[in-house]
Amino acid sequence: MGKNILPEGNTVGKWFLPEGPNSDIVLSSRIRLARNLAGIPFLPRAEPKDQEKVLEMVKEALNEQRFLEEGYFLTENELSPLKLEFLKERHLIPLDFVRSERKRGIYIKRDETESILINEEDHLRLQSLTSGMDLFSAYEKIENLDNTLSEELPYAFTPEFGYLTTCPTNVGTGLRASLFLHLPGLVITKEIEKVLRSLLEMGLVARGIYGEGSETKGNLFQVSNQITLGLSEEEILEKVTKVGEQIVEYEKKAREFLMRDFRLAIEDKIARAYAILKNARLLNSEEATNLLLLVRLGINLNLIKEVDLKTINILLILIRPANLQIYYNQEMEERERDEKRASLVRSVLSNG
Amino acid sequence: MGKNILPEGNTVGKWFLPEGPNSDIVLSSRIRLARNLAGIPFLPRAEPKDQEKVLEMVKEALNEQRFLEEGYFLTENELSPLKLEFLKERHLIPLDFVRSERKRGIYIKRDETESILINEEDHLRLQSLTSGMDLFSAYEKIENLDNTLSEELPYAFTPEFGYLTTCPTNVGTGLRASLFLHLPGLVITKEIEKVLRSLLEMGLVARGIYGEGSETKGNLFQVSNQITLGLSEEEILEKVTKVGEQIVEYEKKAREFLMRDFRLAIEDKIARAYAILKNARLLNSEEATNLLLLVRLGINLNLIKEVDLKTINILLILIRPANLQIYYNQEMEERERDEKRASLVRSVLSNG
């Protein structure tokens, strides 16, 4: 039931492990490139046969360039609702892709650091994910993938506008650079509103971690560039990185302030979260996420030492509803999931 | 600062230890007798000099009968607001006594099982407390105290109305029999409303554990007879006992039902409560009470085995704001109390 789409010996994508720079605050960096094929109608007007043509061309190109053997190529008829949800929870597809009626496909490299969506909003969406604050190396990888594919595929490009895209906000470089941030300090001190407002003024945008329209829950935020036209790729990467570094500084200051002036209240919150995770018999997804994020903060503040960030990051993915079911290779109702989730978290943290 | 009013070697009143019958559900039984002295105006009309006279007469009677050496006699000028609150938390005085402007006093036997309020609502209120469901032995003790005092004091009594009291609902035997009940099963299954309504029909009344006007918080209830005229002492005791036994049966059934049909949810609630108590850095009085009562239920359901009922019952008293301060012999602001309370509970339960 889909265990085959899990990379062997690796329970979550490599990009979600806390290995990159500043990964106490920046969970990961993501680059997305929008590309379309010349001579085929863009998606809002593409017929099913056009969509199939795109799928064939991309698959062929991936095959030619030996990408297929490094990952998985799946089309929509191979993707059950559960598998789609699983991929969404792993940030490999957006909500629109789940809901779409089109002939669509996805290519995922085994370690989940690179992927390509076919017939989402554009003919191709190339995605690269890395751990921590590291947009430049994410970009390097995707540039490589993009260049290789461009040898096989006729991209729609004009010297005046650059890469042509379905949505005008993506025209130009077609590049969107995002950072996934964990900002409990700024949320608790209520500084976050100020930070989010100043982002807008700088042409950046903050969203929930599951993209457009998703709520910013559990102190997780996704910060991206708003426009892609008029700036070079390098300028976009530099801008988002610079702002990201600024936010990291603010978050560190907020944490220092909390530890200086509200240490006991923070210790209390974190000790309770850890205790509940180690003892609860039922845990829903939202509560588990919030508690794990508090423990994550506790580890970063040196208040919890028996468990490491990697374990918490892995749990943050595995406890999500579809991931949990695929992990246990078993379809489960909500109540059963809550029980299994609690039991998974309990056993992992007791051995932590 | 008042450690002297704590019985030596005994951290809470003997009546609060889980030694009596059905003490998994019935925390304790209480008997109160209202008595007034003939020839002295009843309290609403008594002048300060009348009030002093009552105090003197009672103290003299206690001395004559060698009660003074078995306990403490304290007048209102020896009772700081903190000590008054301490006594209220231990169910030795009611709220009215704390707020009163009268010359008033209290006699407390060392083990807190017997006490006498002087110039509360009546000249004398005799109180006897026992552990568990045991109104008859509580009554036996108080009858003894009452008889002995009546040798020294001229009680106001008429053959027609019995003992005369300030409030008409106490006229007659002047006896109020109460049970302190812990009814989480009935509360969780929402059967409690039905039970409380049927009590009223039988002439009984349910209140919060701190008497009239106090809320029924944390699944604790006080059930007493409503009227004292027209029934003999024995009839009152039998009636309250019979109803109490009925409630105990309902509560047992509710617990069985929960353990059969909602075991996991109950285990979850109890495991979380225990984990929070063992790990929190800050605990307010209300939360601590609710969590301790859940652990109490957990012990009674055999879900928690490392700690016993006695420990929980003692904590339920010691964590109350005034008791906590007197236990630590230190006046504390709310925040400091929350910290000390958490630390006391943590250390007791970790060694439990």
From TrEMBL, chains A, B:
**Record's GO cellular component, any one?**
extracellular space
Please write the reaction equations for the catalytic activity of this protein: L-arginyl-[protein] + ATP = N(omega)-phospho-L-arginyl-[protein] + ADP + H(+)
Alphabetized, the UniProt keywords read: Allosteric enzyme, ATP-binding, Kinase, Nucleotide-binding, Transferase
Q: Extract the InterPro entries matched here.
A: Arg_Kinase (IPR023660), ATP-guanido_PTrfase (IPR000749), ATP-guanido_PTrfase_AS (IPR022415), ATP-guanido_PTrfase_cat (IPR022414), Gln_synth/guanido_kin_cat_dom (IPR014746)
> Has UniProt tagged this entry with the keyword Lyase?
no
Q: Which GO terms describe its molecular function?
A: ATP binding; creatine kinase activity; protein arginine kinase activity
What is the top-level taxon of the source organism?
Bacteria
GO BP annotation list:
phosphocreatine biosynthetic process
Which residues of this UniProt protein bind ATP?
A: 28-32, 91, 125, 176-180, 207-212
- EC number in record: 2.7.14.1
Q: Which CDD domains match?
A: bacterial_phosphagen_kinase
User: Which residues are the signal sequence here?
Assistant: none
Gene3D superfamilies membership: Glutamine synthetase/guanido kinase, catalytic domain
Motif (RDXXRA motif of the pArg binding pocket involved in allosteric regulation) positions are 337-342
- Activity control mechanisms: Appears to be allosterically activated by the binding of pArg-containing polypeptides to the pArg-binding pocket localized in the C-terminal domain of McsB.
Q: Where's the Phosphagen kinase C-terminal domain?
A: 25-254
Specify the protein name. Answer: Protein-arginine kinase
Gene source species: candidate division WOR-3 bacterium
